[in-house]
Amino acid sequence: MNHTSKKINGIFTAPKMSVAMAAMLLGAICLLPESGNAQVVGQCVNCHTMHNSQGGASMSGTATVFQSLTKGDCIGCHTGGATDLTDNNIPKVNHTGAPASTLAGGSFYWVATTGGNLPATGHNVAGIAASDGVLGNVPPGGTALASQLTCAGTTGCHGDRTKANEYTALSGSHHAPNQNAGGVAGAVDGSSLANSYRFLNGTKGIEKADWEKVVSAAAHNQYYGVARTTDAAAAQTISALCGQCHGDFHATSTAHNPVTSPTTGISFANNMTSPWVRHPTDFDMFTVKAKEYGAYGGGVIGTGGGAYVPQAPVASNDILGVKSTVMSVAGDAIVTCISCHRAHGSDQADLLRWDYSTMTAHGSAGGNVGCFACHTTKDT
User: Fold this and answer.
1) What is the pTM of this model?
2) C-alpha to C-alpha distances, 328 to 219, 241, 287, nearest whole angstrom
3) Which pairing describes strands 205-206 and 222-223: parallel, antiparallel, or unpaired?
4) CA-only gyration radius of the chain, Å
5) Which residue in 340, 332, 110, 347 sits closest to 242, CA to CA?
């Protein structure tokens, strides 16, 4: 038997593997990057099966046949046990038991446990939880989706949203190398799907290689944000991505009530010069460092210069490197949607990063946690 490999389109294949088979492998969606590079590395067997049969049993463990010769779909590949955060270089974002900790995006475990109903502890992704019993397939602050939320595709967050099929929407992305924008390890500029932050098409950012399995002020994802004064969020920011579905929510439109009055109310620009009617996003705390926000991360009010706080992450208007010290210059401490929420889900209502019900003004033990990571003078 000839064991010599051949190289087709940059991929090493078995001797008799056809070009068509190699192309199908390019559509694989089960592995995510390591070392900040969006290109998959590792053994093909971690994701693929040639015939989906071994010893008379399905390689996926189910009767379902998956596209692109994969052993499982998005959910199958990214599901793990309660203690599994990564396995074979695959991040686990859905858990079969309550995880003590999660990766940056959180976990779908809690929304699956509640059956997808309120309190909203996660996004209601098809195959994980049913549509919300109250909201159905209408994102808060948005318009009704054509069908239930999915991981990728037209009704998903990841991949090319002009493509309905999840596999097609992600095709090629897991095997395509990125260019590390500006030469910064892990930085992607959104110029293509493969060069987009976590395959969120068109989004910039710096990807921590372990998805924040181990996180600190100096080692974390770096989100891209742009401070704004109008209703429209700047393109390629993490908040703009959220706004594709939640367009009228949290100061991203003129709505007081995104359900009953989605086009009337007070604008973001007016909100900047009058009392807030909802929590801002795309707001640069450095511009108000003379207030309590200046002490974010242990900074000095009026001066700033505090440490990045992973529990309440802020974005920056550049991706020239991971920020360990923020509130130092304009644009390095921008509030975003995910400053307070986890994208996939959390153990708190509304996908929050902390228990909002325990935030007590001038009555806590201090420590600047939760809301008080930013509102630093309001806890003690």
Assistant:
1) 0.85
2) 18, 26, 10
3) antiparallel
4) 22
5) 340
Output the CA–CA distances (angstroms, integers) from residue 319 to 76, 208, 221, 292, 342, in the order listed: 32, 12, 10, 26, 21
Q: Give CA–CA dist 251/146, Å, rounded.
A: 25
CB 130 within 8 A of CB 124: yes
For residue 258, give both structure tokens: 């995104």
Please tell me the distance from the alpha carbon of residue 161 to that of residue 151, in angstroms, as a whole number: 11
Residue 184 one-letter amino acid: V
Q: Residue 223: helix, strand or coil by DSSP?
A: strand
Residue 363 · residue 370 · CB < 8 Å: no
Q: Read off the amino acid at residue 368.
A: N
Within 10 Å of residue 38's Cβ, how many Cβ atoms?
26
- In angstroms, the CA 321 to CA 332 distance is 11
Collect all residues with Cβ–Cβ distance below 8 Å to 63 and sequence separation of at least 6.
Answer: none
CA 375 – CA 139 distance, rounded (Å): 28
6 forms beta bridges with 13
DSSP annotation of 41 = -
At 339, is the secondary structure helix, strand, or coil? helix
User: Could you read off the pLDDT of 253-302 as tens digits, one per residue?
Assistant: 444 454 555 444 556 666 666 667 678 889 999 999 999 999 999 999 99
Q: Hey, is 167 helix, strand or coil? A: helix
Ramachandran class of 115: left when φ > 0, alpha when ψ lies in -120 to 50, beta otherwise: left
